[in-house]
Amino acid sequence: MKKTSFFVFDTNTLISAALISTSVNAGALDSALNNGTLAISEPTLQEFIDVISQKKFDKYFLDDGERLEIIDRLERNSVIFFPKGTITACRDPKDNKFLDLSVAASGACLITGDKDLLILHPFCSIPILSAADFLSVFSIGYIFYAAVVLAVLPLR
């Protein structure tokens, strides 16, 4: 039986992936789902819900139903973990929940664009990578993904 790899995404990376399907973050999310399963915790899921529900994101959605579909898709493609919440290694205390989750899930990688997290790479032997670096390590490569995205984007 093959062991599942768990991938942790911080909130901003997930929001970007959800809102911009051609973004590098969306490519990283697709790659993570092709290579394993997302790991979430109650605090990380709640932060995602709180952020995606902010008024500033209204322009990306026709109605609240679309937001609920994204939240539902995240929950369906994730395994929930219950970390102890004892890690205090990050200089931004709000980001410790992602380190806690990564350790609790024995994560294969934490994907983020947050410098407060990236500076801790690796953390407890867990790589902390940007979406682009994740793609170059865990997928067929960022160059291929970029070529596909460029092929579907209209020329200006």
What order do the strands of the largest sheet run in, or round the barrel if closed? Answer: 3-2-1-4-5
CATH architecture: 3-Layer(aba) Sandwich
Radius of gyration over alpha carbons?
A: 15 Å
Main beta-sheet annotation: 5 strands, parallel
Description:
The protein is α/β, with parallel strands linked by helices. It has one domain: 5'-nuclease (Rossmann fold, 3-Layer(aba) Sandwich), CATH 3.40.50. It is 49% helix and 12% strand. The protein has 8 helices and 5 strands, in the order βααβααβαβαβαα. It has helices spanning 11-19, 24-35, 42-52, 64-76, 96-104, 115-118, 131-138, 142-152; strands at residues 6-9, 37-41, 78-81, 109-111, 128-129. It has a 5-stranded parallel sheet. The termini are far apart. Mean pLDDT is 89; it is low at 141-156.
Key features?
156 residues; alpha/beta; globular; 49% helix; five-stranded parallel β-sheet; 8 helices; Rossmann fold
Write the layout of secondary structure elements.
Blueprint: E1 6-9, H1 11-19, H2 24-35, E2 37-41, H3 42-52, H4 64-76, E3 78-81, H5 96-104, E4 109-111, H6 115-118, E5 128-129, H7 131-138, H8 142-152
Parallel strand pairs: 1-2, 1-4, 2-3, 4-5
Summarize the structure.
This protein has 156 residues and is an alpha/beta fold. Helices cover 49% and strands 12% of the residues. The protein starts with 5 loop residues before the first strand and ends with a helix.
